[in-house]
Fold each of these.
Amino acid sequence: MGANREYKDSIFTWLFSEPDTLRELYSALEGIPLDPSVPITINTLESVIFKGKMNDISFVIADKVVVLIEHQSTINKNMPLRLLMYIADVYKKITGEEDIYHEKLIPIPRPEFIVLYNGIDEYDDEKTLKLSDAFMDAGNEAPQLELAVKVYNINKGHNQPIAQKCQKLDWYSTFVAKVREYQKETGYDKTGITEAVKKAVRYCIDNNIMKDFLKLHSAEVINMLVTEWNWDTAQKVWKEEGREEGREEGREEGREEGREEKALETAKNFLGMGLSPEQVAKGTGLDMETIKRLSI
């Protein structure tokens, strides 16, 4: 199994950044057969949709440009707006900046937006998010601008017909499910996540799930997944701490000092988990100088 290293920044993009694999996955999601001769051109942008990690793949298939995203956290309801900005950059890349000023109509591939949800929260098998849901004072008027995002839950046990048509997607969902299963035994700190991923790799190899891929790239898979999941865990913790501070605000004297102490403690924990100083500063609100002192 080869890998398009130019676009690889997560296990998901590593597995699905090959034309043949993308063709199989897209065919399974759409429920339509695609001939192997149907061309696919990957054109993922460097300006990624999620800050801190790359979990998106943009590709042109036949006369469509498809933006495919793996989402491991709670679905962001602003995804249609973020994808509107993303697709504008994709079209700019496809057409060239000067071509749009020509009088002749420029044919462009029809856009399609797909999110594969892989988070731990309960979510429907399928759902559609629309840009128009965010419009203010829309009334009953039909929106003059719309962008729809199809969301599929790819957690193990969901959307089985799709998984049955795409073996790599089924394997990937199984692998992630095993990591989460083992985390209940090993814990959720960096050491626990690392051990859980190692156990999941061994399980999958023993059960002929992504066997060749994992035997060849196990060390990279472990490093990438631990880093990726640490980032998701950190975001969840920051969100929960924000809610807690909101509940306590106005009820405790000296709360500013308490928040600073909590931020310092949180920063130390996340540095120990392997997050970069920039990521820790973004999540805690501490300045880089303070973060660097903590990392010494």
Note: The radius of gyration is 21 Å.
Amino acid sequence: MKHYRFTIVYEQDEDGCIIALCPALQGCYAEGETEEEARSNIREAIEAHIESRIAHGDPIYTEIHSEAISLAL
């Protein structure tokens, strides 16, 4: 069994829903009414995403680095 580690970004939409995004897996996101629910849902989404990539012989990209930047506009 291979172990993976991914950064997850949490955002809150205008309706208060929590969106969980996995930037390393393009298009992989989930949502929930709470951060805990979003966290659980993104774990399931990541598992399904990886299983699908393995089944199709697609590569699974590894995260090299994440960084937070600040901008003043």
Note: The mean pLDDT is 95.
Amino acid sequence: MLHRIWLGFFLLAFAGGLWQWLAVGDVEVFQRMVQATFDMSKLSVELALGLIGTLAFWLGIMKLAEAAGLVDKLANGLSPLFTRLMPEVPKGHPAIGSMTMNLSANMLGLDNAATPLGLKAMQDLQSLNPKKETASNAQILFLVLNTSSVTLFPITVFLYRAQQGSTDPTAVFIPILIATSCSTMAGLLAVSWVQKIRLWERVTLFYLGGFAAVLLAFVGYFATLTVDQLQQQSSLIGNLLIFSAIVCFLSAAHLKGVNIYESFVEGAKQGFDVAIMIIPYLLAMLVAIGVFRASGAMDGFVWLLRETVALFGLDTRFADALPTALMKPLSGSGARAMMLETMNTHGVESFAARIAAIIQGSTETTFYVLAVYFGSVGIRHTRHALACGLTADLAGIVAAIVVGYWFFG
């Protein structure tokens, strides 16, 4: 499926380029498209090389956690849940601990820590995969949960709103939390339907209910804070938890008699190999996205959608936020640029800008994550991963628009 979508990007880009040239008279459109291939090729290598240090550090830390037995303990604690969601993952397998750490980092908004932890989890799951070039059910569920995971601290969205002159940068906090929760639930339900996972068992409901209670407690606390307090508390809590985990892993490994320096270096050596391995996959996806955007095809789609909605006499104000929605599954930096462009054009407190901010905080770069995570273990056949991931994205975007009308319409 992914190869058809990849081809579709180029075909739509070519059609968009022809339209811009023949109908609009834009004689430079193909120059921009070709330049996009060079720019994205360069960016893919820069991104991969930029990951080497972070990957090496966190894979080294994870090696210490494994040597200290902490990953096994965490895996045992969550085994009742994951053995029901992922029956092919044995009870207490290290993959469970890696997945938990990755999802926790995502919830805290710690992207630099989440990516290497996610790649480690994907490698652990790959060790159980009998068909190495085809994604397993467990890998697909993990990827969808990763791309749609609830984000408790969308601080970058608040900061951009503050920089653009918003008088209440955190006004979108609760809407983002609602939208990202809808995205996660939709992703989980989509995968569960395809893989026939039974979510209504007592143990599964117990764990999911517990996570929901913790989430609501966080919401209740952070909803009482001002923007300055929220930034301070989120930064403090997130970074404190991460550094505490590092110290805990080091101390536990040392107390268990592990040579922490040699174990760390052994784990860190994997960082370079993983970063280099993902370059071809990252290159393919970023170039396709770059030419699609440069061709004007995405702008044409937004115009078509706006006109279609207008035919039914419906409110089209949300359409001005759609460039962010369309770019978000493709490129995080591209979506951020779209959000800022909407803020600059319509005003930071405009309805469209608020919708764009909610979308930015509630969905993930599915194509990027799929290319990097599956590429890191050599998976070529993604099965239903992309469809379920995009289902979660669509649910998050629709929820963001609905919640935006609810709160600000």
Note: The longest helix spans residues 29-67.
Amino acid sequence: MKAVILAGGLGTRLRPVTGEHPKPMVSLLGRPMMEHIVELLRGCGFTQICAALHYRAGEIMAHFGDGRRFGVELEYRIETENLGTAGSVRNCRDFYGDEDFLVISGDAACDFQLERLMEAHREKHAAVTIALSAERVPLRYGLAVTDSDGRIRTFIEKPEWPRVVTDLVNTGIYVLSPRALEAVPEGGFDFGKELFPKLLQSGEALYGLPMEGYWCDVGTPQDYYRCCADALDGKLRITPGEAFRLTERQEPEERGEEGVVACCDCENRARLMGTLSELMLDMGADYDDGIRLRGRDYELHISPSAVRSSVRIAVRSPDAEYARALCLSAREVVEKLGM
């Protein structure tokens, strides 16, 4: 099966994390975010992939090459100007030809079973099938209102609370039939704001499928760090990079009842603790003694050193290997925040 990865955006809001790097190359547990997407696609049976690039395309191409070392066939289409989401995909029409194909962002954090989306699309003979995700606070997203059969009746873009009529949001992950792209003119054109409303008006069949699993639109530094925490907690199922796999040099120290302990030097421990406190505020952390975050099978304790500019991380868990891995992963995140 074929897939198009949208990886050409500037990612301006995420610049405090990415710097000058393209957004799909920002590290998530030691691997570029787009690398996790390629792995997800391969695991779901999408092995022919085309990446639509614009900003710093060479950096992405140098890392991924032809895709062979990632188990896929990867090619590229480079845009000299911003074509919008739908325009970028239409620019790949020589790649997808007359086949149904999947579209996904190269900077999303996701572990959906994407083959289910393709199966549903083919069963309905739809023009477009959209992966939907239930969000408790859906104000930042486009909402999709569906009937009992899953057919989309209307979209509501980034509503205020009085206009929220569903918790199902458009994730930006689509299966498209080529006929859906025939309505895209030359130049810039957007899926959510322009193409999908146009298709609805013309009577085309657009369906939405609520998906099980994790999805996060990594648009801001807060989204990024929350996504890192979710990956560390196992809510997002991804494979960590080599830097997150235990080696003799990286092995945290075991200290009996305290569990597994690691330390991170930093320039300003109070400021770093403030950043961590803000990040974990909505995650149920306790602040009576540093920061304590308790999960079903672990306790994570982060506290500043009293004698030097460093932060101490301790993890307790019945599973010793899990405690060491979580301690190492937490240290990587803390080090990034302390840079």
Note: The chain is about 30% helix and 25% strand.
